Amino acid sequence: MKLSDGIEQAIHCVTMLAAAPEDGLLSAAALAEFHGVSPSYLLKHLQALSGAGILETVSGPKGGYRLAKGAETISLLDIVLAVEGREPAFRCKEIRQNGPNPLPRRYFKAPCQINAAMIRAERAYRDELATVTVADLNAEVAEKDDGAIARRGCMFFEENLRHARR
Amino acid sequence: MKLSDGIEQAIHCVTMLAAAPEDGLLSAAALAEFHGVSPSYLLKHLQALSGAGILETVSGPKGGYRLAKGAETISLLDIVLAVEGREPAFRCKEIRQNGPNPLPRRYFKAPCQINAAMIRAERAYRDELATVTVADLNAEVAEKDDGAIARRGCMFFEENLRHARR
């Protein structure tokens, strides 16, 4: 089981956009350069975040991305589901119904005990991710910052931030 | 994020072997036929379970697989890690160290807050899977059984069970 590299990139981009002053926009190219990642791969994930209502896309040559809602309302779970899709990691194929001698159908009304246990674990995973917001992450980073992280962000915003009316 | 189909197959095979009487062996071919799955694909996962110390392999034409230890000591987590590997789903590439203007190295001694949050979620997932043993699963199935599941198992064992000394 492996999450795509897009998850890390998407979370960093959303936290960066959450730190952007004055409702500013950042282009996919600027975000890709800052994080040293492939622009085309990143674009796919920014579009997924936009489709999930986490980012807003402003089109045009002066366009870019900004948060579609408050950083305190966006959880890590929202970002993971936007990038990876909402399907659970364990996808029961009901192989207990296979083979030359399957069970009577009455046994298949309830989910198999294996599926139920796997779903409970996935719920624990998702519940934990849901407790962490983008605002929390940025606050944690700010706590550890002796000024260098803020300066680096400011330089990036000065060079790259764009503005458009809501 | 998707777990391989091998997980479902591996869990069903281990629960089946846990129900086998008299320390009996089942061949990969019999297990594949019973579950209606590809023998070569299943074999890969049976070997992984054997490598992880969950199953014991007895080689030869009358060989097969049996549990290497008690069903009450094998958890769903053991099976998932045997099949999927032990690496976490989120594999931080430290992209915060990328780009034309990286932060000073002192910031990279501790894991990034994002990685820490993703690891907490994975721990919750694994902790939940660790609470469920193969013995628990078989007990739950037996509780719902009006006899048809046990009969189906018995027929399968009568036709396919092999024996070898420990």
- The assigned structural class of chain A equals mainly alpha
The amount of beta strand of chain A, in percent, is: under 5%
First-residue to last-residue Cα separation of chain A:
40 Å
Helix count, DSSP H or I runs of 4 or more residues of chain A = 7
Radius of gyration of chain A: 20 Å
Q: State the order of secondary-structure elements of chain A, H for helix, E for strand.
A: HHHEEHHHH
Strand arrangement, largest sheet of chain A?
1-2
Please summarize the sheet with the most strands of chain A.
2 strands, antiparallel
User: What's the rounded overall pLDDT mean of chain A?
Assistant: 93
Compute the number of strand runs of chain A.
Answer: 2
Q: How does the overall form of chain A come out from the CA principal axes?
A: elongated
3D structure, described in words:
The structure is a homodimer of 166-residue chains. Chain A contains seven helices and two strands, in the order αααββαααα. Chain A is mainly alpha-helical and 166 residues long. Chain A has a two-stranded antiparallel sheet with strand order 1-2. In chain A, β1 (55-58) and β2 (64-67) form a beta hairpin. In chain A, α1 packs across α6 (134-144) and α2 (28-35) packs across α3. The longest helix of chain A is centred in the C-terminal third of the chain and has 18 residues, at 113-130. Chain A is elongated. The model of chain A has no long low-confidence stretch (mean pLDDT 93). The interface between A and B is large, with 58 and 58 residues.
